[in-house]
Write a structure and sequence with these properties.
Blueprint lengths: L2 H65 L4 H22 L12 H24 L3 H85 L16 H61 L4 H25 L7 E3 L1 H10 L4 E5 L6 E3 L1 H18 L3 E8 L2 E8 L27 H11 L3 E4 L2 H4 L2 E8 L5
Parallel strand pairs: 2-4
Antiparallel strand pairs: 1-3, 4-5, 5-7, 6-7
Length: 468
């Protein structure tokens, strides 16, 4: 899993838990707000009930004053004013919380108040105006009893509202406490998840980066072939692979530089050796041929001397070819034709050429030398030899296979080193020269292990004409 995906998952979980905590807090705030609004509505309901009760008592009090014969005008005006306020208060009472069970229903309250006002206007005042004090007192006493019962009902309603207020406040407290606990739990989970994510990131990201950094810091003193770890998230593993590729390229460049320096030194030595040895060898060959023409008992010895001298000349020439493999010419060459010419010179070679082969630019003589060398080596180890020519990776690949023992995995690179050979009569320069020529043509020459190829297998790759 990539670092980006790890971080995204971690942050999404954190945001989800934080969002849950915020949602719980918002829901708690909403529930508390609803509970507080209900408390406010119930409180207003109780206040309005108390006002209705107070106005009913005030109306009854002014009727009592009128019964006692007090100032008619004043108390009658106060009575009308109280009745007006009472009508408004009863109207407002209709806007209160309808969920509280009432002893005095609103319609019943209005009907009873209407009855009281009707008796006051149509019976009590006419009896008072006519001087019928006994009738007026009786009507007032009846009204007082009705008012007392009505006020008792209103007080019972006030008690019910007070109980509802207490219940709403208790519910509000419970919801607030529960929401607080849930929010704390969600925030605690978010904190725990943040800790886990931090540990996860540290374990899966920081630790591989630290190991990679430590390994990279030790590269300066590490032996050749040392590689940094390629473990961890894809980004860190990719960085390790990139660094290892760079290390491989640097080592290849170092080997190429050492090889170039070795070739330069060997070229100087080979040049000196060729100059110093070829002349004496020429004299030896001349005298050997002269003795051979004279015949006699020394003729056989002269032939042996000439054969060994020519072998020495061949070795010196191979040294020069290895040390100075520069391409002398660059001609367009048909790979199939070049392969056929080389195969004709070795018995038992099976040639297979793919169709549509691109041309290559090479030194015709040097290419023939390399192919002949590879086929000759194969003939030394196997009876069935095959040469396949096919287009590969923007170039042409010549693959030489034989049914011999092949090259062990430990020797697939060593066989291209100068003077390394597995044959008693070999000089160990043939494959080294072949690779040197291949590299001079911007190509490659490599061997496959016997464990993979099932025998001997060497591949020569040359870039196609016009490729960069």
């Amino acid at each position: 899993m990539s670092i980006r995906r790890r971080l995204v998952i971690g942050f999404v979980v954190l945001f989800a838990l934080s969002g849950l905590a915020v949602a719980i807090a918002v829901d708690a705030a909403r529930a508390s707000n609803d509970a507080l609004r209900r408390v406010a509505r119930l409180t207003e309901d109780g206040r309005r009930l108390a006002r209705v009760g107070a106005l009913v008592r005030e109306f009854s009090m002014h009727q009592s004053h009128l019964t006692l014969g007090m100032d008619r005008g004043e108390h009658l005006g106060h009575s009308h004013h109280a009745r007006h306020l009472l009508s408004e208060a009863v109207s407002q009472l209709g806007e209160t919380d309808p969920t509280v069970e009432r002893r005095v229903a609103l319609d019943t309250l209005r009907a009873r108040l209407t009855t009281l006002e009707s008796q006051f206007d149509r019976a009590f005042l006419p009896a008072l105006d006519a001087g019928r004090q006994a009738e007026a007192r009786r009507l007032h006493d009846a009204a007082v009893g009705e008012v007392t019962a009505l006020v008792a009902g209103l007080e019972a309603d006030q008690a019910a509202v007070a109980e509802a207020i207490a219940d709403a406040e208790a519910r509000a407290d419970e919801r607030a406490q529960a929401a607080t606990l849930r929010s704390a739990a969600a925030l605690g989970a978010a904190l725990l998840m943040a800790t886990l994510v931090a540990g996860w990131v540290s374990r899966t990201v920081s630790d591989p980066v630290a190991r990679l950094t430590a390994a990279a810091a030790d590269l300066a003193e590490a032996p050749p072939g040392t590689r940094v770890p390629e473990a961890g998230p894809p980004e860190v593993a990719g960085l390790g692979r990139t660094l290892n590729r760079v290390l491989g390229d640097l080592e290849a460049q170092r080997r190429a530089r050492v090889e170039a320096e070795t070739l330069a030194a060997l070229g100087r030595v080979a040049g000196g050796v060729a100059h110093e040895i070829n002349n004496p060898l020429g004299v030896i060959l001349g005298h050997a041929r002269l003795i051979e023409r004279l015949g006699g008992a020394a003729a056989d010895d002269a032939q042996a001397i000439a054969r060994e001298a020519r072998q020495c000349q061949a070795i010196v020439q191979q040294l020069l070819d290895y040390a100075r493999p520069g391409v002398l010419q660059s001609d367009p060459i048909d790979p199939a034709e070049a392969a056929a010419l080389a195969a004709e010179r070795i018995d038992g070679v099976t040639l297979r050429c793919a169709d549509g082969l691109p041309t290559v630019r090479a030194d015709r003589q040097r290419l023939d030398q390399v192919l002949y060398n590879l086929l000759g080596n194969a003939a030394q180890f196997g009876a069935a030899i095959r040469l396949d020519v096919e287009p590969v990776d923007g170039g042409v690949r010549f693959t030489v296979r034989d049914d011999g023992p092949g090259v062990p995995a430990a020797d697939v690179e060593r066989i291209f080193e100068p003077f390394f050979t597995t044959r008693p009569e070999g000089t160990g320069l043939g494959l080294a020269i072949a690779r040197s020529v291949a590299q001079a043509h911007r190509g490659t020459l490599r061997a496959a292990p016997a464990e993979v190829a099932g025998g001997g297998q060497v591949e020569l790759w040359l870039p196609a004409e016009g490729s960069s």
